[in-house]
Amino acid sequence: MGTVVVGYVAKPEGEAALARAVEEARLRDCSLVAVSSHRGGQEYDETRAAAAQGELDDLRARLESSGVPFTVRQTVRGLEPAEDLIAVAEEHGAELLVIGLRRRSPVGKLILGSNAQRVLLDAPCAVLAVKAS
């Protein structure tokens, strides 16, 4: 069974990526690995950790109802989210990595975010980038 990896944040772009990743996992008969990456450091205090845990609990509940076999990975290692996603995709031999893109201004559209660009250039598998509705 193959694996679809998705970068998840509790924002519209993360929700769009998750919805598409679940669809892709069903279509491909794959398992899903949802990755929630946090940089850590001083700003990642108990309040932020508790909020992140609540978001992950909600994510697990939603994935359980999807019927897709899944794993949720939370990383707090001081790495950029792109590095975590690429590492998890390599670890699982992913056949697809799904990321969400946020809407940008006309000038911002000239340049992708650094994490999205890094994933697109360095991922060991196909990458599907989706925008929030």
Shape descriptor: globular
Supply the number of helical segments: 4
Percent in strands: 15-25%
Uncertain spans, ≥5 residues at pLDDT below 50?
none
Instruction: Tell me the number of strands.
Output: 5
Rg calculated over all Cα atoms = 14 Å
Overview of this protein structure:
The chain is α/β, with parallel strands linked by helices and 133 residues long. The protein has four helices and five strands; from the N terminus they run βαβαβαβαβ. It has helices at residues 12-28, 46-66, 81-92, 114-122; strands spanning 3-7, 31-38, 70-76, 96-101, 126-131. Strands 3-2-1-4-5 form a five-stranded parallel sheet, with helices on both faces. The termini are far apart.
Brief rundown of the structure:
With 133 residues, the protein is an alpha/beta fold. It is built from 4 helices and 5 strands.
Note the main attributes of this structure.
133 residues; alpha/beta; 4 helices; globular
Write the layout of secondary structure elements.
Elements: E1 3-7, H1 12-28, E2 31-38, H2 46-66, E3 70-76, H3 81-92, E4 96-101, H4 114-122, E5 126-131
Parallel strand pairs: 1-2, 1-4, 2-3, 4-5
